[in-house]
Amino acid sequence: MTQTNGFFTTSDSAHLYYEVHGSGQPLFLVHGWQCSSKFWQRNVSELAQKFQVIVMDNRGHGQSSKGLHGQTLARYAQDVRELSEFLHLKDFVLMGWSLGGPILLAYWQQYKRNSNLLGLGLIDMTTFPFSPEEWNSQGLRNYNMDGFNAQVNRLINEREEYFEFFGNAIFKDGKRPAGTDWVIEEFRKLPPWLATAIYSDYIATDFTAELPTITVPTLVVNADGPVFAWGIKQGTYLTSLIPNGKFVPFTDSGHMLFYEEAEKFNKTVTDFVTDCMAQKV
User: pLDDT by residue (tens digit) across 123-178?
Assistant: First the structure.
């Protein structure tokens, strides 16, 4: 299996770490807030047996540079576009988890006329965290800015305690399993001022209206857990807005469904990408 890794410099001089595994149909995976490409560790090697799998660390995250500029979903989406062009990807499938979902929708918003996409995947995400609508199960729903300010205060002034809280919340039972100290280590790599900047853009940006405009096959997967209390209901509703959307619920995992139910996730993604390739033909 072929593998390359390195740093790519964006048009605004950020330095982004990326890895390419395997060969064939390109599959680009985008991680969530405070996370990194390491979170896909139970997925990349298996998926790379069939596809060319691309992962990167979003700017500020993981091994990527920590510049103050570009902490918006629109710029993160442009980073995806520029890396895809740097790697000469053609007709690739783009999937994003959590914050990665809105990054994908920002990508679609900017590049839909020439997306170069074969398919999209929205992994346990919401299109508008501040939404007051009943379908939204994000903790800051209904324009809860006070809740966001309290979260920022914890992130800055009670940093390790907040990391432990968040590290527990991304798993189904609200308890981080043994052997996952690396989760906290990855959280620490995102400076709090950058974490606050991108999250403030994320919670206030509404991509719901983009869903009916999507013209490529779209996979939506969600689970119920501490992050999204009624995530399956949320995912079912969002999928109903997508013309060619397919929803798959995950019932034995939480926000990190691709880690906790890796075998099911890998098969779901493999089947979806294969279907996308067949539709292209």
Answer: 999 999 999 999 999 999 999 999 999 999 999 999 999 999 999 999 999 999 99
228 backbone φψ class: left, alpha, beta (φ>0; ψ -120 to 50): beta
Instruction: Note the helical H segments in 18-173.
Output: 44-47, 73-86, 100-111, 145-157, 159-169
CA atoms of 14 and 68, how far apart (whole Å): 10
Q: Looking at the chain, list the stretches that DSSP marks H as alpha helix, in order from N- to C-terminal side.
A: 44-47, 73-86, 100-111, 145-157, 159-169, 181-187, 192-204, 231-240, 257-260, 262-280
Per-residue pLDDT reduced to its tens digit, 16-61: 999 999 999 999 999 999 999 999 999 999 999 999 999 999 999 9
Percent of the chain with pLDDT over 90: 97
According to DSSP, the residues that pair with 246 across neighbouring strands are: 219
- pLDDT score of 280: 82
For residue 135, give its domain range.
3-280
CATH code at position 183: 3.40.50.1820
Contact 216, 115 (CB under 8 A): yes
Conformational region of residue 107, where left means phi above 0, alpha means psi within -120 to 50, and beta covers everything else: alpha
pLDDT confidence bin for 281, thresholds 50/70/90: low
Query: Amino acid identity of 41?
Result: Q
Contact predicate 243/63, CB 8 Å: no
The tokens for 26 are: 């390109």
Label the pairing between strands 52-56 and 26-30.
parallel
Q: What is the DSSP string of 100-139?
A: HHHHHHHHHHHHGGG--EEEEEEES--S-TT--STT---T
DSSP state of 65: -
Count the domains in the chain. Answer: 1
